[in-house]
Specification:
There is one protein chain. By secondary structure, the protein is an alpha+beta fold. The chain is built from 7 helices and 6 strands. The chain has helices spanning about 5-45, 55-70, 100-125, 130-170, 185-190, 215-220, 240-244; strands at about 75-85, 90-100, 175, 195, 210-215, 235. Helix 1 packs antiparallel against helix 3 (about 100-125). The longest helix has about 45 residues, at about 5-45.
Length: about 240
């Protein structure tokens, strides 16, 4: 493959990354606004407090600003599990939020895969139409991964807007809720229905995660529900592999 072709392929993926980044940012604005709006309306109805569009706009603008800055750097802040080996076959699991350049990595991975198809095709004398077919099949294979990433980003933004809405409304406690099916990660299942102070709750939004945090002030203050002081959970070591 000559240098000009490589530069043209690189230019295509640079434009692809810009387009994806723009689409994600627009989606972030819509998701953040809808989530913040529904959360504040929910709390206002429960507590008979005033719902204002200014509060929704403020939450949305802050989230989009941070998200856009991350996309410009080639990724976003993601939630990752942290494991501590306790011995005797048990693991302590917590979560952390860290910046991951996943958009850059995904773009580079696709660019390299396409270049490999062309380079190997030229060496083996493969017709251009056949190489184009191989490229098409490659992208078809990555479609599900891209859709999962987009779904994870949407869920993460919605949850951030929800929590920001709770904080804006002075909510003190949140409850961890899973999808309660066979696909739930063991660490997430261990947190199901547990209640945490809003500033000490586990991060929600791991890759392809469907868990949410919901307001829990009433069950704590009126019903005396237990509040966790530690966001970590303990699972058996072999379950870490299931946790993915």
């Amino acid at each position: 493959m000559d240098e000009q072709t490589e530069e043209e392929i690189q230019a295509i993926f640079d434009e692809w990354k810009k387009a994806v980044g723009l689409a994600l940012t627009v989606n972030a604005e819509v998701i953040a606004y809808d989530s913040a709006s529904s959360t504040l309306k929910e709390i206002a109805a429960m507590r008979r407090t005033k719902f204002t569009k200014a509060k929704v706009d403020g939450i949305t603008d802050a989230i989009v600003k941070d998200y856009k800055a991350g996309i410009k750097k080639g990724g976003s802040y993601c939630v990752e599990p942290i494991y501590e080996d306790l011995g005797n076959g048990y693991i302590r699991a917590t979560t952390k939020q860290t910046f991951v350049p996943w958009l850059d990595d995904f773009s580079d991975e696709q660019r390299d895969a396409v270049m490999k198809i062309f380079i190997e095709g030229e060496k083996e004398g493969v017709y251009p139409l056949e190489m184009a077919k191989q490229v098409e099949e490659y992208f078809a294979g990555t479609r599900h991964r891209a859709q999962t990433a987009a779904r994870t980003e949407s869920q993460k933004i919605a949850q951030t807007a929800r929590i920001d809405g709770y904080k804006e409304s002075d909510v003190k406690y949140v409850q961890y809720i899973t999808a309660a099916d066979e696909k739930v990660r063991p660490t997430h299942e261990a947190r199901h229905l547990k209640i945490y102070p809003i500033n000490k709750a586990p991060w929600v939004g791991e890759y392809n995660c469907r868990c949410i945090l919901t307001e829990a002030d009433f069950v704590v203050e009126e019903e005396g529900a237990k509040v966790e002081t530690d966001d970590s959970v303990i699972i058996r070591k072999e379950e870490v592999f299931v946790d993915g």
